[in-house]
């Protein structure tokens, strides 16, 4: 029997409105992978679509938690980071990678900071440069197109895109020294939306697309990242894991749209979990 894999998910926990840890925990667990958590902040709700949310910053707890784990010689097969609220958190998490990783720990960084051509309002213009440093410590990064442009210093361009445009962005991200890259939100026409993935070692670029469903659905980046991490931990390669994550995310969005659920609650990924376990051969 293989040893169960263990992933450390480093995100905030938003009480209502599925994203970050309330997405990563159930999804990665459903892929048969143990999910340890390092919460970076506690919010009453996420920041998109709810007003007046509370925010308790846990920056001061990060180092003592990491030190405790170091003293216990804990081992993680993967570390997955998402939304980080400040420069200081980025710096502390970068140092936590060094303290917690072993030779074969897979570090996945989602540089959550922007969408639709706009840096999220809570961040200053200097934030992307700091996030770039964290990306350079990762084995895999999963930026959307806006985040990609901020990371490589290109002006944002709305879609549809061409293959040449996307592959130029992949080359520029690879030049930062990141071994594996998945750009999300890629579309060449109005019908399909998906991801471009690139392995700097093999120089291979692949795409995975799904149906494009109109509208903005909160937390879907975290849904995608969590499935990707779970599938990678189950031995899938980058392209296969991206395919599984795109299909899962599209199915979650489709179900939510069909039910007419208020978007700020996030997507119904829960109903898709049994099929995910089946796809991974777990049941
Ligand atoms: O889904 C990313 C995310 C995570 N956590 C919080 C957020 C967001 C995106 O806006 O607000 C608190």
What is the gist of this entry?
With 283 residues, the protein is of the alpha/beta class.
- Taken in chain order, the helices and strands follow as EHEEHEHEEEHEHHEEEHHH
Characterize the largest beta sheet: strand count, sense, and whether it forms a barrel: 9 strands, mixed
Query: Regarding quaternary structure, how should these chains be classified?
Result: single chain
Helix content: 25-40%
Number of helices: 9
Rounded mean pLDDT score: 97
Number of discrete domains: 1
Contiguous uncertain segments of 5+ residues: none
Name the CATH architecture.
3-Layer(aba) Sandwich
Bound molecules: 3-hydroxy-5-(hydroxymethyl)-2-methylisonicotinaldehyde
Q: In what order do the strands lie side by side in the largest sheet?
A: 3-2-1-4-5-8-9-10-11
Question: What is the name of the CATH topology?
Answer: UDP-N-acetylmuramoyl-L-alanine:D-glutamate ligase
CATH superfamily: Ribokinase
Total beta-strand segments: 11
Question: Which CATH class applies here?
Answer: Alpha Beta
Given helix and strand content, the structural type is alpha/beta
Shape: globular
Span between termini: 16 Å
> What Rg is obtained from the alpha carbons, in whole angstroms?
18 Å
Strand content: 15-25%
């Amino acid at each position: 029997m293989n040893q169960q894999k263990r992933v450390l998910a480093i995100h905030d926990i938003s009480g209502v409105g599925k994203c970050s840890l309330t997405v990563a925990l159930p999804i990665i667990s459903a892929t048969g992978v143990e999910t340890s958590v390092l919460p970076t902040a506690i919010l009453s709700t996420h920041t998109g679509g709810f007003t007046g949310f509370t925010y308790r910053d846990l920056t001061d707890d990060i180092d003592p938690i990491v030190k405790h784990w170091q003293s216990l010689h804990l081992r993680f097969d993967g570390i997955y980071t998402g939304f980080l609220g400040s420069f200081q958190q980025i710096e502390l998490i970068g140092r936590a990678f060094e303290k917690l990783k072993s030779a074969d720990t897979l570090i996945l960084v989602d540089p959550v900071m922007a969408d639709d051509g706009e840096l999220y309002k809570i961040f200053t213009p200097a934030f992307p440069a700091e996030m770039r440093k964290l990306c350079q410590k990762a084995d895999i990064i999963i930026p959307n197109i806006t985040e990609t442009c901020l990371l490589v210093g290109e002006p944002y361009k709305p879609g549809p895109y061409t293959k040449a445009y996307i592959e130029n962005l992949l080359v520029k991200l690879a030049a930062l020294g990141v071994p594996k890259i998945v750009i999300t939100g890629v579309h060449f026409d109005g019908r399909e939306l998906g991801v471009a993935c690139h392995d700097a070692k093999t120089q291979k670029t692949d795409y995975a697309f799904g149906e494009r469903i109109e509208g903005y659905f909160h937390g879907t980046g975290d849904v995608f990242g969590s499935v990707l991490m779970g599938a990678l931990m189950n031995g899938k390669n980058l392209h296969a894991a991206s395919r599984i994550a795109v299909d899962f995310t599209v199915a979650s969005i489709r179900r939510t749209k069909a039910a007419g659920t208020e978007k700020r609650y996030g997507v119904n990924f829960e109903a898709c979990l049994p099929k995910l376990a089946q796809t991974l051969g777990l049941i």
